Amino acid sequence: MKLTVTTLRLEAEGVLGVELRDRSGALLPPFEPGAHVDVSFSNGLTRQYSIASSATDSTRYWLGIGRAPVSRGGSSYAHASLRLGDVLEVSEPRSLFGLQEEASGHIFIAGGIGITPILGMIHRCVERGHAWRLLYCVRSRRNAAYLEQLDPFRNHVVVHADDEHSGRADIEGALGSLPEGWHVYTCGPAAMMEAVCDRARLAGIHPGSVHLERFGADPAEIAVRPRQTFSVRLLRHGGCFAIPEDRSILDVLEEHGVVLPSSCREGLCRSCEVPLVSGQADHRDYVLSEEERCAHQSILICVSRAKDGELVLDI
Asked: Which of 194, 202, 249, 314 gets the highest tally of CB atoms within 10 A of its CB?
């Protein structure tokens, strides 16, 4: 889609709010709370941003873009160069981090800009009367976006600002008192999300009730992963390609003219998922469930590899 920037607003220190609408006023494709879109900037970069607005509002997508301390070009461009009236290429929304509405309640643990997809889920909880709580972790209230939208629900919200507390956020306390049947949702820095997963496990919360949204792959985790050469055979195309240690399946296929959908190239968005016919995949993505990984029926070719030998893909 080609959508127009109709509002730019500083949501907090380092957080830019961007409203996108259809120029003709047409309704936008619907989305589920927690969904994100791919946004292509005029500098050639494409980045994924979560939709913070209510899913009941089909007239706009409201995005929150945090300025990354070490930007790869996307957030710095948005903060420095976006202007009212700019037209951006935007994908249809994708939902990888959705609200499990069958749950008896929902606890959200957001870190910094991780509040963006969670805000859409809170909108849904309020609209439908679901039970919910929020633990919102920020360096300072100056960096806390959407506080004015959350203020009417202050009885549901705990804000932990590092410059107001000597210790870390009480994740253990938030999860230890969780009523039966509640689900946990977390988005933010990798260390915070790992702490949430650890505390949920210690609290006896079923792993299927804990949901994560990552904004980036963990460089430290990537650095220690073993990499080996293997081959990929394309069932319908007929080609067979060697995948060296330092290249992804997606890279090699593109080099040979086999161009497939892709976006994040970090195993975060699922746009490059393809059917797996045979072979044992070494799943290195962040979005497939444990059941999907064990089934070995698909693979994200931007990051995942073969455990050994050959993979056959239905391409």
From this structure: 249
CA distances from 67 to 18, 53, 88 (A): 13, 19, 19
161-175 average pLDDT score:
90
pLDDT at site 213? 86
Cα separation, 96 vs 273, whole angstroms = 13
Strands 15-21 and 132-138: unpaired
If residue 144 lies in a helix (H) or strand (E), which one and from where to where?
none
Q: Which CATH number fits domain 105-213: 3.40.50.300, 3.40.50.80, 3.90.180.10, 3.30.450.20?
A: 3.40.50.80
User: What pLDDT is attached to residue 292?
Assistant: 87
Burial of 46 (0-12, 13-18, 19+ CB in 10 A): middle
Taking residues 271-295, report their average pLDDT: 89
Give per-residue pLDDT as tens, 61-89.
999 999 876 556 678 889 999 999 999 99
CATH architecture of 2-90: Beta Barrel (2.40)
pTM of the model: 0.78
CB 117 within 8 A of CB 34: yes
**CA-only gyration radius of the chain, Å:** 20
The residues with which 273 forms a beta bridge, in sequence order, are 300
User: Which range among 164-173, 209-218, 300-309 shows the weakest confidence by mean pLDDT?
Assistant: 209-218
